[in-house]
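HUMAN: Can I see a protein plus its fold?

ASSISTANT:
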Amino acid sequence: MDDLLQEFIAETRETLEALSGEIVAWESAPHDRDRLDAIFRFVHTVKGSCGFLDLPRLARLSHAAEDVLAAVRDGHRTPDTALVNAVLAIVDRIGEIVEAIDVGASLDDSGEDLLIAALDKGGDAAVACAPQAQTPALRNATRSVRLNVDLLDRMMSGMSDMVLARNELARRLRDDDVEPGVEAALERLSLTVAEMRETVTRTRMQKIDALFSALPRMVRDTAAEVAKSVTLHIEGADVELDREMIEMMRDPLVHIVRNAIDHGIEAPAERRIAGKRENGRLAISARQSGNQIIIEITDDGRGVDTERLVAKVVAQGLRSEAELRLLSDKAKLDLIFEPGLSTKEEVTSISGRGVGMDVVRANVEQIGGRIELFSTLGQGLTIAIHVPLTLSIISTIGIGVEGQRFALPRQAIEEIVRVGGDAIRIDMLGDTPAATVRERRMPLVDLGQVLGFERDPLGVPMLVIVGVSGGSYALAVDDVLDTEELVIKPAAPAVMAAGVYAGQTLPDSGLPMLLLDCAGIAAAAGLHFTREALVDEVEVEDTADAGSALLFDDLDGARRLVPLAIIERIELVPGDAIRFSAGRLRLSTDSGIVPLVAMGAWQDRAAVAVLRLRDDDNEIAYAIAEALDIFALPAELVPAAEPGPVAGVVALNGEQVELLDLHWLFAHHGGDQTSAAPPVCLIDGADQAWMMTFLRPVLEGAGYRVASRLKKNESAAVVLTMDATLPAAAAKAPVIRLRREANAPADDASVYRYDRPGLLAALAQSAGGR
């Protein structure tokens, strides 16, 4: 905490030196929104920092100044001389308190109420009575040296030039015969450059624990302030990040965490009603994924109601309703970053002023990062902040595609292979290419196509096997050039927004080169990585060979085959699109409801891979764990012992693999889509109400349309009654009479009303075998 306090004091001093001039300039130009926003952000940041540094006096003063500046921003106050004087007095007092904290001196708090009162309209007298500036004791001796970030950048740039010069010199000496003494000198130079590189790099690197260490206290205090109970879990505190990025991430992280507690996590009573634990859970983690640092903040609160968010944006006049209704769900979720938007109904010390999330995104984008939101209504929100490894020297491999050069982080590359022969080949799964590397099947991504070139993926000569979080894929390139150690810096925001780049670099050739983001390329290619499976949405060709079959791992762990000709496509669907309703599993799709077959547990999966199977008339879905490969269907089949979803077993590469019985699957699950009108079962007599309530589901399950009266020109296939006298419709349709007693005389042809098998048998006999 001492280190954080010293950083807070140093940063506040630097900001105060420039802020007084900004306030005076703002007085002369009250409509200068940029200056007003800068002053507002300063007092807002001071207030937020005081929340976890436990500085109540500073928090009270900065909160009061923030209130009046917010009123000016909203147009409710005009920045006249009296207001500017009052804000200046508050800022001066903040500076005095900061200096007193630094030297450990006490500072009387009398008169601070008058400073706050001076912020109100007509508070001029309060300023005159406010305490005069006091000079605290001399500062403690400086415990650290604060360097300008530009100076560190110049050090890194110089170090980069040294590394590149060393690389060029080593290449030139390799091409010529040199004396052993020169080689030894080069080796010493290389070791010295490596040591200096590490030392200079360390001046900018810091464990992210410096960012996380203040969170437990802040979460505790914030939760207590809003009468909630929150448990904090932190992972990845040992991950190292550029010092500048840590400073840039401090305010965004504070905003996100406080908003999660105030907006996202429900009150204990509300959580009990929703079936949740009273204690909310907030998880913050950091990890390195390839050439990125990913910071995730996850809560188990209410999530984001996008429809309510849209209504708020419209109500606050930020955008039109017609425009917002055309947005996708993801775009609606991103409205949370709309400047000036607040979903809080009232202003509190934590939130409600519409400041925060837009600043969060601006700060992250300033360092070349990006933010993703993942929300599940009623279950929580995850905010993932992707920060590139900027201003860091990393080992890269240069690749070429369509005459362009790019760099890939070496640590993300598993191997590099040349296409050729049966061991390393490219096959087509439907109209989607897949790579096979020594019997290992993986998705293929053509870098040229991702970058917008028209290419045939079957003609690429080189594959770079790239590992990302969740799996691996093959990246098709034209050339693999060389390996270099390069300094990576942020690219322009427009370039980073493409999602496939992680920064830019300058190799010894002198030509700028972009570093590729391996995870971003996978996302741009439509690959979906999950813990259970990797499924690329595939449209299977209608002309697929009838003798081919898809090999897949089923949900129950068995390995099975299904003829490729029956597969319309393979897709990944959300787990909540599958429901058990009306006696069977069904899948909700864009076009309607499709029967679904699952041979194992799917409930714990956030996303489920399904095969969409279709014959001439009907369609069913079949849930699987993972699609593996395509094989020629073996000719010999050992039939199953009894009818069921498995027709039998075949031998495939020495392994017993089950083959699905399509006839059985469609016979038992494909009957929902039928075009023939169902026969009518007419309910007649005094007990119509009982029969409609108790028997209608049974009859409709047997394939009948149940009616209490016939439409014009409609006839009944069977009549059901509990009366002793036959109804009028009995002259044209067979009649089944139900009785109340379980036992009946031997000559009584009626059916006991709770004898379900007997009723269905009588229906089948009376209605022509249906």
